[in-house]
Amino acid sequence: xxxxxxxxxxxxxxxxxxxxxxxxxxxxxxxxxxxxxxxxxxxxxxxxxxxxxxxxxxxxxxxxxxxxxxxxxxxxxxxxxxxxxxxxxxxxxxxxxxxxxxxxxxxxxxxxxxxxxxxxxxxxxxxxxxxxxxxxxxxxxxxxxxxxxxxxxxxxxxxxxxxxxxxxxxxxxxxxxxxxxxxxxxxxxxxxxxxxxxxxxxxxxxxxxxxxxxxxxxxxxxxxxxxxxxxxxxxxxxxxxxxxxxxxxxxxxxxxxxxx
Length: 260
Fold this sequence. Notes:
Elements: E1 2-10, H1 26-42, E2 47-54, H2 65-73, E3 77-86, E4 92-100, E5 104-111, E6 121-129, E7 132-140, H3 146-167, E8 176-180, H4 190-201, E9 204-207, E10 227-232, E11 237-242, E12 253-259
Helix pairs in contact: 1-2, 3-4
């Protein structure tokens, strides 16, 4: 039985607690990413799901943040799911990204719509763990509108139904979902809808469990639970922690589980 450690973290374009990444200079982004890399190493994460990570954006130093983290964490495999692209002198390219100790054998990126800036989406991968393929979905939902989030959840559920039919024969376990959902589990919103959908098909746990210790936003004094991991019960959660950190406006969530 293998034990894995999964971290999900909205890193806010590596701007830290600044109001906007455009207010910082390039050297500050590298310094901030080094701090994030040290956190990833410190918590001994095997897989890291990131949101708001830049591939090459003018407002955050015009370099690949995921490649930088890969170089400084020792996690040798990475894949970027870019949901926003804007060409020209003020170029922007960002979305979700995943770091892994093991290689990827399949990936699909699905933006919600075709926005050039501000759009969300999800990145689905299969990780070639020695004990079998791990399906993982890295998700970021809209922060402004409940109707938008619910439509995005419906899009995600249709994708999961479809990808299950195509790919499930390869999987070691049902998909793990994680990311920044921008709504707490106790609201009649997308998090609760997704959990209900998943539980109809398999036994899932929503982590971190509700309570004061589950709050992730804003990071200096967390008041809301916005960041989650949907873990199949077959994974057997061993440890869940909202990691104390002020490297972004969100705190990261760490889940350790057994690959039964």
